Amino acid sequence: MDTPTEINSVYWDRKKKSWEYEMVPVEEYHGAIDCQYCNKPMSHNIKTGGEFKMVYVKCGCSRTD
Predict the structure, then answer these.
(1) What is the dihedral angle through the alpha carbons of 5, 9, 15, 18, rounded to the nearest 10 degrees?
(2) For 24-28, what is the mean pLDDT?
(3) Angle value at C-alpha 26, between 18 and 15, nearest 5 degrees
(4) How far apart are CA 59 and CA 37, in angstroms?
(5) Sign of CA dihedral 26, 6, 23, 54
(6) Angle at 63 between CA 62 and CA 65, to 5 degrees
(7) Which tens digits make up the pLDDT trace of 32-49?
(8) Which domain holds residue 42?
(9) Distance CA 21, CA 9 (A)
(10) Which one of 6, 17, 41, 53 is most buried, counting C-beta atoms within 10 A?
(11) The whole model's pTM is what?
């Protein structure tokens, strides 16, 4: 997998009570954690805005065609 320059992160919005998405720029990429069921990336360890963060994405289990 190539190092991403940005990731489409998913997060829970408590006010709207729904999942929201945000494109997060990646300064440094430090790997991903895979879903134990579908073996697709579920979260990524990155550096963005000068901080190290774990950002979550929709794994293969949650995708619909």
Answers:
(1) 140
(2) 96
(3) 20
(4) 9
(5) negative
(6) 145
(7) 999 999 999 999 999 999
(8) 6-59
(9) 6
(10) 41
(11) 0.81
Say if 65 falls within a structural domain: no
**Residue 35 counted as domain residue:** yes
Distance, CA of 26 to CA of 45 (rounded, Å): 10
> How many domains are contained in the chain?
1
> In terms of pLDDT, which residue wins out, 30 or 64?
30
CB 29 within 8 A of CB 4: yes
Summary mean pLDDT of the chain: 90
**Calpha distance 39→23 (Å, rounded):** 22
Tokens of 48: 């963005």
Name, in order, each residue with C-beta under 8 angstroms of 6's C-beta and a sequence gap of 6 or more: 23, 24, 25, 26
